[in-house]
UniProtKB/TrEMBL annotation:
Gene3D superfamilies in the cross-refs: 2,3-Dihydroxybiphenyl 1,2-Dioxygenase, domain 1 (3.10.180.10)
Name the record gives this protein: Catechol 2,3-dioxygenase-like lactoylglutathione lyase family enzyme
InterPro entries on file: Glyas_Bleomycin-R_OHBP_Dase, Glyas_Fos-R_dOase_dom, VOC_core
Residue span(s) of domain VOC: 4-121
Organism: Saccharothrix tamanrassetensis
Keyword Cell division: no
Length: 125
């Protein structure tokens, strides 16, 4: 059997708003309720299981490998929403994308401060 990531839990102050954000920005199918979660499935069958929490949220990093065409669509949605974006994970290079490893990449945040990244080439080329 091959070991594959199946799902991860994403903490959110408002699970519905966070699920809607991911669906709208990335173009995923609508979230599906499962117990206390709203599950947003990625195109490689990994689900982001959004859970509302009342405690402080420790921001996490979620990186998505996308095609050039998908990058353009997602990045357009980021800019249409007026979201700040950066070329680096530490947010030191605002308003630009990176061209690491011969591809394109950019970072932006979800409504909870999670650091989202889209890249067109995996790290290391």
């Amino acid at each position: 059997m091959t070991v594959k990531l199946n799902h991860t839990i994403v903490s959110a102050h408002d699970a519905q708003a966070t699920a809607d954000f991911l669906v709208q920005v990335f173009g995923f199918r609508p979230a599906v309720p499962f117990g206390p979660f709203l599950c947003v499935e990625t195109d490689n069958e990994v689900s982001l299981d959004i859970m509302s929490v009342t405690d402080a949220i420790t921001p996490q990093h979620y990186a998505f490998l996308v095609s050039d065409a998908e990058f353009d669509r997602i990045f357009d949605r980021v800019r249409e929403r007026g979201l700040p974006y950066w070329a680096d994970p530490f947010h030191r290079e605002p308003g630009v994308i990176n061209t690491n490893d011969g591809g394109r990449g950019v970072y932006f945040e979800d409504p909870n401060g999670h650091n989202l990244e889209i890249i067109t080439v995996p790290y290391g080329g």
